[in-house]
Amino acid sequence: MTVDLLTLSIALNLANVLQCTALIGLALANRGRAGLVWWAAGMGVLAFGLLITTLRDVADVPLVVHAVSNALVGGGMLLLYHGVERFFGDRGHLRRLLLIWLLIWLLILIANLLLASTGDMPPLRRILFSVVVAICSLLIGLRFLRESRPDFHSLILFLAIVFFANGVFFALRGIASATEENWLVVSPPWQTATYLISIATTTLWTFGLILLVNRELVIEQRDALQQLEQIFVAQPDAVLLSRLTDGVFVKVNRSFTTISGYSAEEVLGKDGLTLNIWRSLEDRRRWIELMRRDGYCVGVEFQFRRRDGELRTCLLSSQTVMIRGVPHAISIIHDITGRKQIEEALRRSDARYRLIAENATDVIWLLDTQTARFTFFSPSVSKLIGYSATEALALSFTDFLTPDSARYVQASLNYMLHEWDGDDLIAAPPWTAEIDLLHRDGHIVHAEIVSSFVRDEEGRLVVLGVARDITVRKQAEIELRLARQQAEAANRAKSAFLANVSHELRTPLHAVLGFAQLLGRDSNLTATQREYLDIINRSGEHLLKLINDVLDLAKIEAGRYTYTAAPLDVRQLIADLQTLFRPWAEAKQLRFTVTCAPEIPPVIVSDEAKVRQILINLLSNAIKFTHHGMVQLRVELAQSSRLLFVVEDTGVGISPFDQPHLFRPFFQGQQAAPDATGAGLGLSISYEVARLMGGDLTVYSEGVGCGARFTLALPLQTPSATIVALPEKTPALQAVRLRAGQPIYRMLVADDQPASALLLVTLLHRLGFVVQSVADGQAALDVWRVWQPHMIWLDVRMPRVDGLAVARQIRDTCMQTPGLLRPFIVAMSAHVFGDAPSSVLEAGCDDFIVKPFRESDVVRLIEQHLQVQFEYAEPAAFTMPVAAIDEQGYHAEWRQALLQAAREANFRRLQALAAQIESDRPDDARQLHQWIETFDYQAIMVWAETLADVQPPSRVVS
After folding, report:
1. Theoretical Cys-Cys bridge with 829: which of 84, 653, 796, 838, CB 3.0 to 4.6 Å?
2. Which positions, given as ranges, span the membrane (predicted)?
């Protein structure tokens, strides 16, 4: 049977043209869809390659045409493969495919060249062609099988089978060509099958690719509908679909049911009139007119009535759509009730702020930073500068500022605008300044402005400020400053007065107490003489205490009173107080108790001297003002970690009128007796000292005759792990002379007060020193240069050259002259107010001593600086009183001897006096021995003085 190859070739080429046209149309209809352009290009290249192949089979063509046709067929198949990859979302490997195609083309070209050199071998060319088509078809079929989309499963399998069938056929064709016995004979069945298979496979895969795209379009449309449905349902605004012909609701979303209060079943099949959702029928009519005329509406505001009757303000936007030829309206209802409420609140707020701005006493203003012109003034500007708000807006800010204020404001504004950007200016804290304004009538108004940078409604940077008239305040500040200056001047005058008074009082008192101490060293004095000396000492000590109290109070008021915190044994302190005050209380037949809570720490950190001073003052007042009953000292721990010292008595009490004034200086209560001693400073100083230590002193009394309770509250502070050892009490022995073998030391006393100089010279002579005395600073310098003393006692205030100038000159001279003896310099002064100690040390002195001083203070300084050793006094022989006790009680002579021995810290004499009363008063003797063993001479003196009390004292707060 004869095969018409021409007819088959024409049919194949026509089919390829139709397939290529179909794929091009598909690509044009689905622009942007990946892979379709590559399919069309691949099919076009493949069709062109097959066209050349058919020409090769029906006519003789050059060798290169064979190579080109095979290369085009292979390239077209590879482009189809790349299109499949891109369609399924892969990036594809175009460069790799291009390299493979070039390699195939080179192999085909080389093979054809070899065949041309050896003779025409058509079967080999057919084998090569078949292999290329088979491999490319199988690759495309495998790529389809790799895709696992459930929606495309059948189409993918169909296309894979088509390409596999094409690949298998061409593989068999290649095998058949290789097994033919006569290489020069063309097998008509294979050629016919080739054409038919090519037409069938290309048509099938073109059809399959078109179906694949259509299937994807269907899936995308389905997904889009699902997404639209989801958007419709999930839309936060109410969405509904209704027929325009009768207004019946066809579909509503969940938000519509929420805003309306109806369920979907209650809405569908009904119209808005039936559901009564329109508050105004006029709104409904206007909406229908817009839809009929324009086919849409946007943002139509109307009142929506819910099922429960609540009215909501909404915006309605609708669009006409045709569904199956019937006009429908898809509408979106946006609830703006909240926004309308906010707008109403803003309107009310704006009205409220406008009311505030129009009635505020301060002036509110806005300044445009670009034009430097005011854009707003509150009406109160007329009260500030005399111009109305309208008149002020026509002025520049420099028109109603004084020249200095105008320059200051202009410079500040320019600096801020040029150095900072707008956002930094807005975030910056408000700018506050005091300026001077020019009133319309010409007088100056002092004003305070507070301003901030903000943006107005147009986004421009403006200054929002408030101006306040502070003329009255400025005048008050001037008066206050003047009053403060006057008060400071008065305070300085008071300090100078107290300093002078202190110096003038302490200087003679120094001589009185000093010579009394020197006379007390004489063991030949009679008991009467010692009693007179005791009176002098007690009177002097009382006067010194009064001076110290006044100075302490002045220091507290001036803020110069300090305290030193150190470890304090609380139980030892109250034991000392118990020992000190029990004899006095028992002498008045009072019950005196001291208790300490067990939770109190054994050691705290505080100023022991000041705590003792306060408690002695409180206990002294308590015993003094209590004539029967009890006095109690309790130490407790408050919940707020504060230590409480409570002194309670059953004495005369304090009236409610006196209690608020009790801690004022020099205050004497109504219960004070006219003959009682005390200056009324004790409680005032105690109160201030307690406050200085971070604590408080309070009083409670139900009234006169009901007793009183004073509470000292101190912060509880315990020492660190390494506790400083508490100082031990040592007996105050009296130095008599230098110990033998000591060098001879020269002492220079410089004091313009003869009595003070004589006192110190006498004491130093008795101790064994060589002493010279001068009366002014210049003489001290002259003697120092010639005599070179080891120690100089310098009075600070002297004529010609004062003590501090002398100290500086000696210090400078010693520094400039190596080998010169550097004396130890002790400054003396009765001036203890101010910073005297620090100033004398800065001047070059080695130490400082306050007049009046005790012998022990002088001895201590000599031992400290010269490192000398003294011999201390043995018990002086004295005449023991004949009897200590008779039927009237203790003898006055025995009591005076006990007082004198305690003052001299004479250990053996005190033991002898205590032994005299062991048989008659064993309890008192035992107490005396305890005080003597613990060197508590103060307790002995207090007890001895109480032995003479016969009448209870009247209450005087001190």
Report:
1. 796
2. 6-29, 36-55, 61-84, 96-115, 127-145, 152-172, 192-213
Q: What pLDDT score was predicted for residue 633?
A: 94
Question: Mapped to the 3 state alphabet, what secondary structure does 409-422 carry?
Answer: HHHHHHHHHHHCCH
For CATH 1.20.1070, the residue range(s) in the chain are 5-225
In our burial notation (b when 16+ CB lie closer than 10 A, e otherwise), range 897-934 reads: bbbbbbbbbbbebbeebbebbeeebeebbebbeebbee
Residue length of the chain = 958
In this structure, how many other beta carbons lie within 10 angstroms of the beta carbon of residue 277? Answer: 25
Coil, helix or strand at residue 26: helix
Rounded distance between C-alpha atoms, residue 616 and residue 396, angstroms: 73
For residue 952, what pLDDT is reported?
33
DSSP secondary structure string for all residues of 350-396: HHHHHHHHHH-SSEEEEEETTTTEEEEE-TTHHHHHS--HHHHHTSB
Would you say the pTM of this structure is higher than 0.85?
Answer: no
Q: For the chain, where do the domains classified as CATH 3.40.50.2300 start and end?
A: 735-871
- Tens-place pLDDT, residues 219-238: 877 877 777 777 777 788 89
CA distances, 28 to each of 15, 20, 90, 215, 266 (Å): 20, 12, 21, 17, 48
Q: Is 60 exceeded by the pLDDT of residue 677? A: no
What does the alpha-carbon distance between residue 684 and residue 667 come to, in Å, rounded to a whole number?
9
Contacts of 650 by beta carbon, 8 Å cutoff, 6+ apart: 626, 628, 629, 630, 631, 707
C-alpha–C-alpha distance, residues 373 and 362, integer Å: 20
d(Cα 518, Cα 537) in Å, to the nearest integer?
A: 12
498 within 8 A of 863, measured Cβ to Cβ: no
The DSSP code for 817 is S
Cβ–Cβ under 8 Å, residues 409 and 433: yes
Does domain 235-341 bear CATH number 3.30.2350.10?
no
Using N-to-C axis directions, what is the helix angle for 682-692 and 608-624, rounded to 10°? 150
Q: How far is CA 533 from the centre of its chain?
A: 66
CATH 3.30.450.20-classified regions of the chain:
235-341, 360-469
689: Cβ contacts below 8 Å, ≥ 6 apart: 556, 561, 563, 610, 613, 614
Q: Which residues pair with 886 in a beta bridge?
A: 889
The reply to whether CATH 3.30.565.10 applies to domain 563-714 is: yes
Q: What is the mean pLDDT of residues 589-609?
A: 87
How far is C-alpha 448 from the geometric centre of its chain's CA atoms?
A: 30
Q: What DSSP character marks residue 954?
A: P
Cβ proximity of 780 and 806 under 8 Å: yes
CA distance 401 to 410: 11
CATH 1.20.1070 fits 5-225, yes or no: yes
pLDDT at 720 > cutoff 80: no
Over range 731-751, report the average pLDDT: 84
Residue 297 confidence (pLDDT)? 93
Ranges of H-type helices in 180-241? 188-234
How sure is the predictor about 957, in pLDDT bands with cuts at 50, 70 and 90?
Answer: very low
Give 330's strand partners. 241, 319
Task: Say whether domain 360-469 belongs to CATH 3.30.450.20.
Answer: yes
Q: Which fold has domain 735-871?
A: Rossmann fold (3.40.50)
CA angle 727, 731, 732 (to 5 degrees): 110
Q: Which residues pair with 872 in a beta bridge?
A: 735
- Cβ–Cβ contacts within 10 Å for residue 211, how many? 15
The answer to whether 643 and 615 have CB atoms below 8 angstroms apart is: no
Residue 306 in tokens: 């819910």
The CA angle 339-345-346, to the nearest 5 degrees, is: 90
Separation of alpha carbons 608 and 599, rounded Å = 20
